[in-house]
Give the backbone structure.
Amino acid sequence: MSAPSGRFDKQYYERFYADPETCSVTGEEVARQIAFVAAYVKHMALGVRRVLDLGCGLGMMQAPLLENFPRATYQGVEFSEYLCEELGWQRGSVVDYRARTPFDLVVCHDVIQYLDDHDAERAIDNLASLCRGALYLGVLTAEDWQENCDPQRTDNRVELRTTQWYRTRLARHFVSAGGGVFLKSDAPVVLWSLERGA
């Protein structure tokens, strides 16, 4: 792993998630994200019984995921030693976490930008092995840093890669359904042409 686990300590989570003055996302924003993903996945008639939140952090997505998929089991996996001790998450990395059975929905948000190119590519391949339905992926790109994010609320100690870098590697395993949702290439879903992402 290219990112040291000590970096994701109490101070990191207080700054980017707990402090209203500097937090990168609010609980309300997370709930809206998951409501969108859930509605889209339900629209595509993908049955969701197993959910993996890889890089679950403080677990902000757990409650909205289980609210939208009440019959599903939720597995939170986190790399931060601090959070695993504080919140009891299973410790693991997006690069090499393994599971006996793939998940219907995999969530990986604000994780891969902390990896170098080699590990980021391995992480995408690993996400494909863990997913049998839909992946909801959020990554800060070079374009986002220049055009979209608030630099006062966004960690800049990351690897900024282009959107195309990610699209090229994701396309080996997934079909973009837009909105950060990617369908496993062999998932039993038909996407009409205009439903597909760029």
The chain has one domain: 5-185. The beta strands are 50-54, 73-78, 90-91, 103-109, 131-138, 174-178, 181-184. The chain has a mean pLDDT of 91. The first strand starts at residue 50 and ends at 54.
